[in-house]
Amino acid sequence: MKNNKFFWLLSLMLVLSVFLAACGKDDAATPAPNGDDDKEPATEVDEAQVLNLIMSAEIPTMDSALVTDSVGFDLLNNVNEGLYRLNDENVAVPAIAESEPTVSEDGLVYTFTIRDSKWSDGSPVTAGDFEFAWKRAMNPDTASEYGPYMMGGVVKNATAISEGKAEYTELGVKAVDEKTLEVTLEKQVPYFLSLMSFGTFLPQNEAFVTEKGADYATNSDNLISNGPFVLEAWDGTGLSWQLVKNDQYWDAETVKLTEINYDVVKETATAVNLYTTGEKDRTALSGEYAMQYAADADLVTELETTLFYFKYNQQRDGKDTPLANVNIREAITKGFNKQDLVDVVLANGSVPANYLVPKAFSFNEAGEDFRDINGEMSEFNAEEAKAAWEKGLSELGVTEVTLEILGGDTELSKKMDEYFKSQLEGNLEGLKITLKEVPFAVRLDLDTAQNYDIQVAGWGPDFQDPYTFMNLWLTDGGNNKMSYSNPKFDELVNSSVGELAMDPEARWDAMAQAEKLLIEEDFGIGPIYQRGTMSLVKPYVKGVVTHSFGGDYSYKWAYIEGK
Amino acid sequence: MTKYIVKRVFYMFITLFLIATATFFLMKTLPGSPISSAPKLTSTQLAVVEAKYGLDQPLPVQYGKYMLNLAQGDLGNSFQFKGASVTDLILSRLGPSFLLGSQGLILGLAIGIILGMISALRQNTIWDFGSTFIAILGISIPSFVFATFLQYWLAVKWGLFPVALWNDGWMSSVLPSIALAMGPLAVGSRFIRTEMIEVLSSDYITLAKSKGANGFEVAFKHAFRNALIPLVTVLGPLAAGLLTGSLVIEQIFAIPGIGEQFVKAIMVSDFSIIMGTTLFFSVFLVFVILVVDILYGVIDPRIRLSGGES
């Protein structure tokens, strides 16, 4: 009898497992973006316009008012379209705006005409959709992070609204009629049109958003698009989804890809295996994989516009740190070999940075790179570093200094920190470096409390203008958190968005002077490197545009040829 | 039996209550918060967000509200997936983890038991050494090494199974299940071997043999059943661990499972998901322990359940 019970239980477990296996098959078969049915035609028909991609993380949200991460911005850039879009040469050009806007004489009122275009449900895109979306991003109830950040000091009343001094309905954006959008600015903003391609300024269909309520943009059923693609098969938290060509898109003729299949893969080894077997068309390489594939014919190296630097905290617990001394800051800035760091430690296509505004990021009207004005500054120089160090020590009246480097807890961060320690201690006699490696959230807390000596920090741009890097170091600036202050620097940077706002040449010059002041005279921060990426990309993938800010890639012009 | 189960279920609730309380307060001691990784929020917006998630309330109030919601089956919303319900997230991630875990467990135990029996019955032969060698491999080599090996050879080189991802139906589950099976295989084989050798040398086996029972009868009818008891003891935690997801295996095979999500939630201080998954794991573990206790009685009638005495 007991025997029977035991075998009955075993049988039950087996039946359950078979049942679960069957369920698993059904569940998994539903999205099946890469299922055999889809794959076979791709190999038979030479020019099937299907792209198979890997993402490094899930999509937290597709609500343009709430999005803050690179995955969200990247997808929004492909499923939606704002007044402007970055074109295949990374220049912001009119998109849902029919043409360039008319600008009032004082440069404060921009009037856009909305082109004939539709949402994926067939309803027209109107000026009201922009007014609704922007005001929704400023509504405190929406709790948008980027809304107040991107609009503050730009769109009229945005700062007052985020400080609770005005109602969000008072934001300076108004749909005059269905086709006319009037935007009033707080002050002249020379980079305003470049902002119009950024995710936070995308339109939202009021009727649809209102109907969906809290469910809006939480999965692909609760989302509509006005861009080149439509998001499908996204359940809100899953690891796979699909972009399908949007036939309602006003410029659908340009879009060649019919389908883009995404899967989240977090292990580089797995991603490389998927690439090798031909299941995926592109994969990013990290760490040792970058070195391993350095000579591969499919390798593509790109320079990002993200810059990493030392933040030198000049005041801790209300007292000056040794870093309040400019010579100590100079010594550390010049005291480590950046070329070896990028070649040996990073080995991912990054380049040494001896500047604040990245290379190949912002250009003047003649197309010249901002970087060409100041060139390289404060490069590695062990002798100059030593001289500055000794001068600094004597000014402080000490022979030894202990400083803490605050860094991340990833393998790469730890390797870098060790490198900094050995280089700086080796080149600067009397310096002792202690390392503090913490998770990102903790680092932000310590930064806010200004509880560190030296911090390894990074910044990526939010719009295509040097100002996005320069304003970080204004006295009491939101990201300053290191007690750097130089009235001359403030004056120069503020003038670039003040009296010089409409004089491109003079403002370019002012920002260049400010950069020189910060990096070469004050050593306010110590630039380290400009990040690069290495990826394997199948040679038949053509026309993908990599962007320097906002969404990482555009697939509007992408196609498959010669597969 | 019924009285015993009712009593155990009552204790289960007490245990879960204590776990929920301890996790809640421990979690609040974690550095950072779900919104500390939002550096661009202005102070006004920060206050709004804190109020929205109730983070501005004193800790006892937050605790009270959480427990009240929990009693109503509401685990709250995720911070990282804006607007996603934690219950939905757990349910959607559970299927793959459970499928892989159950397949790995059954496969591992089945092979492990067979190997263990062969080892015991053919002690000190090449069969014994072979089986022991496999068990040692299973114990000493981490599952992610097996996973990488299986992925490279069976998927990349020979193309027998999908490399990774969860889109090829049941085939997607084969390699991760085999990788997961190595643990239970090793444990099962080791326990069965040790116990069978001990049982086979006991008096009642000698008696059975003297009564004329053949080798098969002795091995399966008499020895195997008693050798199962220690295995059942470790089965509970083993099953709970496997069925609720393996972070590394899920990550290597890019499977949308719960283990992978749990660790990510801790990294980004997603309080709701940390609480939800911890509670879910706890419910599962105490349930499995109960099932294991009941199994004891089924396997060995000497273990009595009534009155909670065992």
Written description of the protein model:
The complex is a heterodimer of chains A (563) and B (310). Chain A is an alpha+beta fold and 563 residues long. Helices cover 34% and strands 20% of the residues of chain A. Chain A contains 19 helices and 23 strands. In chain A, the strands form seven sheets. In chain A, strands 11, 12, 15, 16, 17, 18 and 19 form a seven-stranded mixed β-sheet that branches. The longest helix of chain A has 28 residues, at 2-29. Mean pLDDT of chain A is 90; it is low at 1-45. With 310 residues, chain B is mainly alpha-helical. Chain B has a domain at 94-269: MetI-like fold (Orthogonal Bundle). Chain B has helices spanning 2-28, 43-52, 59-71, 86-121, 126-140, 143-157, 174-200, 203-210, 215-243, 247-252, 258-267, 271-299. Chain B starts with a helix and ends in an 11-residue tail after the last helix. Chain B: Residues 94-296 form the ABC transmembrane type-1 domain. Chain B: Belongs to the binding-protein-dependent transport system permease family. Chain B: Keywords: Cell membrane, Membrane, Transmembrane, Transmembrane helix, Transport. Chain B: It holds the Pfam family BPD_transp_1_N. Chain B: It is a multi-pass membrane protein.
What is the end-to-end distance of chain A? 65 Å
Overall mean pLDDT of chain A stands at: 90
**What fraction, in percent, of the residue positions of chain A are helical?**
25-40%
Name of the CATH first level of the largest domain in chain A: Alpha Beta
The CATH topology label of the domain at 94-269 in chain B is MetI-like fold
Task: Give the C-alpha Rg of chain A.
Answer: 26 Å
Radius of gyration of chain B: 24 Å
Mean pLDDT of chain B: 85
Large-scale geometry of chain A: globular
- Counting copies of identical and different chains, the oligomeric state is heterodimer
CATH architecture term of the largest domain in chain A: 3-Layer(aba) Sandwich
Biggest interface and residues each: A-B, 72 and 64 residues
Q: What portion of residues of chain A belong to β-strands?
A: 15-25%
Domain module tally of chain A? 2
Helix content of chain B: over 70%
Broad structural category of chain A: alpha+beta
